[in-house]
Amino acid sequence: MKKILLLSFISLTLIGGGWGYIDTTGNWAIEPQFDFAVGFSERLAVVRIDYQYGYVNKTGKMVIKPKFNDAMLFSEGLAAVEGDGKDGYINKIGKWIIKPQFDFAGDFSEELASVRIGRKYKFIDKSGKSLTTLQFDYAENFREGLARVKKDDKYGYIDKTGKWVIDPQFDDAGDFKEGLARAKINDKYGYIDKTGTWIIKPQFAYAADFREGIARVKTSSIFVYIDKTGKRIIRARFRDAGDFREGLAKVKGPIWKRCRYGYIDKTGKWIVKPRFDGAWDFSEGMAKVKMRYQYGYINKAGMWRIKPKFVEAKDFSEGLAAVKVSY
């Protein structure tokens, strides 16, 4: 199971320590009381108390009591959790739908999930029925009808019948997003379509997924942005860069300057001037940013919506954000 601690990671002294949830005005929706917390998905969030994971709703009610060694967010009505050393799936009242039996259980996506027994992966449906045999060295979720899998140290793609659509041949690969997937061969990344044809030939040191029609790629030690023809669309070069989300991307640079993080639009224009020590993607109209050792949230004009005061923070999801007020 992917440990919930790997999910993306905030001092108030008037309220006790720990994790809680704030609304978009910065007011407490659920006061700090958890050892760890992450964002909401399908109206439930994973929280941890005394090393056990459970689920709360948006009023703070514990809908599924903490009793799992690990837990993932709900996806398509089910959540993968660890019980008695094995992973299985529960529904939103905590009932086992697929009993614990896997060494790893992934999220459901497009009605299917990847699971691992021993060192091999396969896919199952929501009844627990196997779609494929245990044959893959690694398997990711289905995206846009295809799943990225690894066999004999190479990546390829299968359809929902388990048939190879693109034979394993890549040293690395990504999920399909907006009709294209990044793929690596001979130490260079390019982009393929769903037939495995190179649409943008391998030429980059690194390549990210396409989002909002744009992808960030790395040439030697710098990031630039390209469109789906491979044409570079923003002239500036950046030390660090993120994907476009809600029309903006976080960047650090340009490369010839020493500066902090800010946000650009799709023309490369600075919309939020670089002044932050850390910055994250926009979500629901706000972005988490870091000033020195504290986190707050800005809007798309770069104005503070919630000033920095948290020692850790998560993105907003479904109107709430998990934040931590003290160590």
What's this model, at a glance?
This protein has no helices and 34 strands. The protein has 327 residues and is an all-beta fold.
Distance between the termini: 26 Å
Biggest sheet record? 4 strands, antiparallel
Mean pLDDT: 93
Q: Whole-number radius of gyration?
A: 21 Å
Number of helices: 0
What is the global morphology?
Answer: flat
Strand content: over 45%
> Which runs of at least 5 residues are low in confidence (pLDDT < 50)?
2-17
Structural class: mainly beta
- The helix content, as a percent range, equals under 10%
Spatial order of strands in the largest sheet: 2-1-34-33
Number of strands: 34
Structure description:
- With 327 residues, the chain is mainly beta.
- The chain is 0% helix and 51% strand.
- The chain contains no helices and 34 strands.
- The strands form 9 sheets. Strands 2-1-34-33 form a 4-stranded antiparallel beta sheet, with no helix packed on it. A 4-stranded antiparallel beta sheet has the order 3-4-5-6, with no helix packed on it.
- Residues 2-17 have low confidence and may be disordered.
